[in-house]
Write a structure and sequence with these properties.
Blueprint lengths: L1 E10 L2 E11 L4 E5 L6 H8 L7 E6 L2 E2 L5 H6 L2 E4 L11 H8 L6 H14 L1 H5 L10 H13 L5 E5 L7 H16 L3 E6 L2 H7 L2 E6 L2 E7 H6 L1 H7 L4
Parallel strand pairs: 3-8, 3-9, 6-7, 7-8
Antiparallel strand pairs: 1-2, 1-4, 4-5, 9-10
The structure holds adenosine-5'-triphosphate.
Length: about 240
């Protein structure tokens, strides 16, 4: 479904990604783990058109999307939930969800999808009229995920959904990620919480200072001494 082929991404003359290649197959949950500053968010930004690779190519559903405008990439079915879950604070929960469908004009389908989001996140239904800026961190993460789903993505890019959340809520968010995947959405998940990410992923890539250094099935990475030492707290 997605094939990243040897991309280099720069911020000015600082190279943040150095020849990164990876694949995501339809139906998978693939996770990208790595330390702060390794380049994980940069990769998601390149995939969603916010950054343009200097070299290399990105193929999605058979065509190149490298350097295409972000809006075209959303239309093609890739939704990005950035780190820090930026919701529109002065708009209600429901208005945020409606905005997620801004590229669609099928009123009936949009209504049905809002109801699906509420079924997935009952907490948002209770708070549908509440201003988003007053939601808790976990609720804002739910809203950011719900808003991205309103674009009916084929591929969801999730950046650090567990950040700043209490453990119980992290568990809930991860269960919902599995549920979203089960209903047909492919997922590329960036996480610092490698234990949780590997527990739900099919495959994983480890990225260090802009390069992929390890890749394999989630089970292989969970069993790898190198991964255990560096990313799983040595257990
Ligand atoms: P984190 O988990 O801390 O967000 P990350 O793996 O997502 O880490 P990136 O945010 O992709 O890391 O950053 C990769 C490198 O690019 C870092 O060295 C970072 O300082 C640098 N970088 C990121 N954004 C910019 C920017 N706008 N301008 C210059 N350098 C940047």
């Amino acid at each position: 479904m997605l094939k990243v082929d040897n991309i280099d991404v720069y911020y000015g003359n600082i190279q943040a990604l150095k020849g990164v290649s990876l694949d995501v197959e339809q139906g998978e949950i693939v996770t990208l783990i790595g330390a702060n500053g390794a380049g994980k968010s940069t990769l998601l930004k390149a995939l969603s058109g916010l950054l343009k690779p200097k070299n290399g190519d990105i193929h999605y559903l058979g065509g190149s999307i490298s350097g295409k405008p972000a809006q075209e990439i959303v239309k093609a079915g890739i939704s990005h939930i950035p780190e820090g879950r930026r919701v529109f604070a002065n708009m209600s929960v429901e208005e945020n969800l409606e905005l997620g469908a801004y590229l669609r004009n099928d009123k009936q389908g949009i209504r049905e999808d809002i109801d699906k989001v509420y079924a997935l996140f009952p907490r948002l239904l209770e708070r549908r009229k509440q201003l988003s800026g007053t939601l808790s961190g976990g609720e804002q993460q739910m809203l950011a995920m719900g808003r991205a789903l309103m674009a009916r993505p084929k591929l969801l890019l999730l950046d650090e959904p567990s950040m700043g959340l209490a453990p119980l809520l992290v568990k809930t968010i991860f269960e919902i990620i599995v549920e979203i995947n089960r209903t047909g959405t492919t997922i590329l998940l960036v996480e610092q919480n490698a234990n949780m990410a590997l527990s739900i992923a099919h495959r994983a890539y480890v990225i260090e200072t802009g390069k992929v250094v390890i890749s394999g099935t989630a089970a292989e990475l969970q069993a790898s001494d190198q991964v255990k030492q560096a990313y799983l707290g040595g257990h």
